[in-house]
Amino acid sequence: MTDERTLDRLMAHLRGQVAELRRLERNGAPPEEVADRRRLVLRLQEHLAHAVRDLLDGPRTAAS
After folding, report:
1. How do residues 15-58 score in pLDDT, each as one tens digit?
2. Total structural domains in the chain?
3. Is 47 strand, coil or helix?
């Protein structure tokens, strides 16, 4: 189960990685390094989306 603290940590991590991606792009980093960072950001976005969905779904009950 996801809680708000988990979401806060994920968002902070995502913001940091986006800032690093922007820095790499600005400083002309090698394309493979930029692509790796971009893939990481996309994975974090997906993870955050799943965590938000989990939080909004609320507790699950066993199906009979």
Report:
1. 999 999 999 999 999 999 999 999 999 999 999 999 999 888 87
2. 1
3. helix
Q: Would you say residue 38 lies in a domain?
A: yes
Whole-structure pTM over 0.70, yes or no?
Answer: yes
pLDDT (tens digit per residue) in 13-22: 999 999 999 9
Question: Would you say residue 64 lies in a domain?
Answer: no
Give the list of residues 6+ apart from residue 10 with CB closer than 8 angstroms, or none: 44, 47, 48, 51
> Residue 62: inside a domain, yes or no?
no
